[in-house]
Structure formats: C-alpha cells, structure tokens
Automatic annotation (TrEMBL):
Complex formation: Heterodimer of SbcC and SbcD.
Name of this chain's protein: Nuclease SbcCD subunit D
Signal sequence range: none
Domain Calcineurin-like phosphoesterase positions: 3-131
CDD domains assigned to the protein according to its UniProt record, in alphabetical order: MPP_Mre11_N
InterPro entries: Calcineurin-like_PHP (IPR004843), DNA_Repair-Maintenance_Comp (IPR050535), Metallo-depent_PP-like (IPR029052), Mre11_N (IPR041796), SbcD (IPR004593)
Pfam families per the UniProt record, alphabetical: Metallophos
Record-level Gene Ontology MF annotations: 3'-5' exonuclease activity; endonuclease activity
Keywords: DNA recombination, DNA replication, Endonuclease, Exonuclease, Hydrolase, Nuclease
Function in brief: SbcCD cleaves DNA hairpin structures. These structures can inhibit DNA replication and are intermediates in certain DNA recombination reactions. The complex acts as a 3'->5' double strand exonuclease that can open hairpins. It also has a 5' single-strand endonuclease activity.
Family membership: Belongs to the SbcD family.
Annotated GO biological process: DNA recombination; DNA replication
C-alpha cells in the first residue's frame, strides 16, 4: 500500500514583521495547499508544528488555520498535527476534539506511546513528538523512568529515549511515520531571526542517530530552510511557507514536500516551492548612491530593508518611509554597531510584561508561568506608579 503525504510546517500564522501582518500571505499559501492536495492526490497531510507565531494570535490567523482544516475535510483528506515551540500547547490540545471532527488529529502536549503519543492507521503507525523544551524534558524523563530526580541525561538523550518509546511499535511491512518539531544536529541553521538562537544551540540539538532506522520517513518542523537532514531514515525539514524575516535568505529553499511512502522502501520526496508570499530583500547603499540607485528599492516587488553607510539622518529616514510604503526598515550603518540591535528591534514593540512572558516561554520553556508573571506585573506596575 502506497501513501502520498503532504509534509508542511512552520506556517507562523499571526507573524507581524515591522508592523506588517504577514497572515494574508500565509493564508494564501494555505489555500494553495488545498490545490496541491487535490492535484497531487494526497492521502495524508502532516503539519510538523509552528502553525501560529505566538500563543495568542488574531482572529484572522486562527480563521486561516480552521479554513484549511475544513477544506481538507471537504476533500476527505485526514491530517496529523503537532505543536511547535511557537504554538500554545494547551490551546492546541483544547482545539483537538473540534479539529478531530474535521479529520485532523492534533497533538499539543508530549505524550508517551500508550497515552496518545502514537496513532495506528490502516497504512501503519505514526509517532507524534511536539516540541519539548529543556525544562519539560526533565518531566518527560521522569515520566519515562517513573523515577524522580534522575535528570542526569542531556536533552538529546531524553528526546532520543522519548523517540524510542514512541516508535517502539514500528515494524516491517507497514508505513512508519515520525513527526517531530526539533533541531537535528548538523542541520543547516542559516535561518535568520525567525527562531531564537537558544533553540538552535547545541544543548537543544538532537543527534541524528536518535532517529529510528525503522521509520519510513521522518517529517520535521522547526528549521525554516527546507532540507534533507538524514538518509537512513529519510528525514526532512519542509521549511517555512513564506520568507518570514529579512534574516532568512531570499533564495533559501522553502515550501512544502510531497512524499511517496511505501512499506520497507525509501521514500520519494518532491520539493514544491510555488514562491508564496512577498520576497524580502536588504539593500545596502552609500549615501552618494541614493539618487542613482533608490529606484532599485522603489521598484522592488516585496518588502525592503535599507542600510545606508554613514551617520544617522532622521529627516532622510522619514522621507524614505513616506515615499516607500514597502520599505519596512531604514538603518544607518554608523548608528548600529551593537550586534544586539537587531534582536532589540524585534522585541521593542513589546511591553515589559509581554517581553518577560516571551522570555519565560521562549528561553525558560515555561508555559504556565501565571504566578511568576503576575508577580512581575505587580512589581512593574508598582515601579511605574512611583516613577
Ligand atoms: Mn518555526
């Protein structure tokens, strides 16, 4: 029995880049997914995490996801979905029973094999591994061992043991699919600012030999550049749908993968990149080139970032912004010697409590940090009242 799979991930619905909501571009890409599902006679859609850019997104962003799954239901095509580090795990779990009605099986929280971490289908078995933060990896290790305080293993080892648990039912003569949101060591991390560096550092990377050779195919999410990261078993990142950030190369591979699976055979993988979303390009100009070369920026069909050599000139900056609505950032080279400036620009739109919440979630891996957040908010408001 052959199975035709559409592997997609890292939608990041709700993404806002320098004040521009990218949701309509991503929603268009998802509508085009339905065309691909029809034309390619897809049997199963796999979504490997990061459906949303933040735990709370706009109604438009949620609507785009729901319309996609309802569209799949109309086509009679089921889906397997896991949460990524950007998704709200509890929220996806809460939506799971509703999405099940549309034929989409959603796993928000990490579960072991006997408790929903693996699902049986007529074609074989799928193991589902949502993103696991380091903090939660400690809990997962305890779950596996039923032995408290035995956290002496690294992240890679814990995820490896979890994968071994989830894929224990993989056997010959059937299709065995592993779906995971993680960083595989050795992957090409040239992905820009879309992911925090904490997640691509070594402590969060999983060694490729943790992937079971019994897997027919491993569908990965997390890294936004489309790439094959393992031959045996075959493991791919499908990449993001659109160029989400100026740091993500304009020419980097992205899109979706159509994967033909058969038991006991290597998969056949077809990359598909219809060129979704607007391209992002960074232009670098000398001040004396502005008159001559500004039309390159003006005629650019996507979003542009302009770096001008020399000292800051706020009048020029204002004029450029007003004349070029698709120009999202103007920076003068002499004003940005700080390597942290980029990251700071990312978060400067957030309030302090929002930034702290993001830190707790992204860096510390705390999702239910209600008490800490409340305490922070109280202190913050006190400080501000007296200031
Ligand atoms: Mn992502």
């Amino acid at each position: 029995m052959a199975l035709r799979v559409l592997h997609t991930a890292d939608w990041h619905l709700g993404k806002v880049l320098k004040g521009v909501d990218r949701t309509p571009e991503i929603a268009d890409a998802l509508k085009d997914h339905l065309r691909i599902v029809r034309e390619e006679k897809i049997d199963l859609v796999v979504v490997a995490g990061d459906l949303f850019d933040r735990p709370r997104v706009s109604a438009e962003a949620e609507a785009a996801a729901f319309e996609f799954f309802l569209g799949l239901r109309e086509l009679g095509v089921p889906a397997l979905v896991i949460s990524g580090n950007h998704d709200s795990r509890p929220r996806l779990e809460a939506l799971a029973p509703l999405l099940e009605l549309a034929g989409a099986h959603v796993r928000g929280e990490v579960r072991v094999r006997g408790e929903g971490g693996a699902v049986r289908r007529d074609w074989g078995e799928a193991a589902l591994l949502p993103f696991l933060s380091e903090r939660r990896a400690v809990k997962a290790a305890q779950l596996l061992e039923a032995d408290e305080g035995s956290w002496q293993h690294g992240y890679s080892e814990t995820v490896g043991r979890l994968i071994a648990n989830l894929t224990a039912g993989f056997g010959p003569g059937r299709i065995n699919l592993l779906v995971a949101h993680l960083t595989l060591a050795g992957a090409n991390l040239k992905l820009g600012g879309g992911e925090f560096s904490f997640y691509v550092g070594n402590s969060y990377a999983v060694e490729p030999d943790r992937l079971p050779t019994t897997a027919t195919y491993v569908a990965l999410g997390h890294i936004h550049r489309q790439q094959k990261v393992s031959d045996a078993p075959a493991a791919w990142y499908s990449g993001s749908l659109v160029q989400l950030d100026f740091g993500e190369g304009e020419d980097a591979e992205r899109g979706v993968l159509v994967v033909e699976l058969e038991p006991d055979r290597p998969p056949v993988v077809h990359p598909i990149d219809p060129g979704w979303g607007k391209p992002l390009r960074t232009f670098r100009l000398e001040p004396d080139q502005l008159d001559r070369r500004l039309d390159e920026v003006e005629n650019w069909p996507g979003y542009a970032k302009l770096i001008i050599a020399g000292p800051a000139n706020s009048a020029l900056r204002e004029r450029l912004y007003q004349e070029n609505p698709h120009l999202l950032e103007v920076r003068f080279e002499a004003e940005a010697p700080d390597p942290l400036a980029e990251a700071a620009a990312e978060v400067e739109s957030l309030s302090w409590p929002e930034a702290y919440e993001r830190y707790l979630r992204e860096v510390r891996g705390l999702e239910e940090a209600g008490e800490l957040l409340a305490a922070f908010r109280e202190l913050y408001e006190e400080g501000h009242a007296s200031a």
